[in-house]
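Much of what follows relies on a compact textual record of a protein's fold. A record is reproduced here so that you can trace the correspondence yourselves:
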Amino acid sequence: MFIQIIQGKCRDADRLHQLSDEWRETLGPTAGGWLGGTYGVTDDNEFVGVVRFESKEAAARNSARPEQGAWWQKMQECFEGEVTFHDCDNASSSSRAAPTTRASCR
């Protein structure tokens, strides 16, 4: 399993949640190899997200889709400054939680 950890200072948490829900409902079902994700925004507006794919290759195919690029352009507007991505292509999961979970981090 491949995971990508995404971090950045959030300027518009409501819009970020809206776009994340939009991705899950419209782009997620057509993203080959997508397994789910978990994300949240801390009290000091730091966004942390973990997205899971079957493989690094599946994640790369998703990133190359034009609709993914268009969605990310909108998502970037929710952040102040640079967004950091950390890739891990040998991940495992030990949870039976729902495939996509929104969290409030404290």
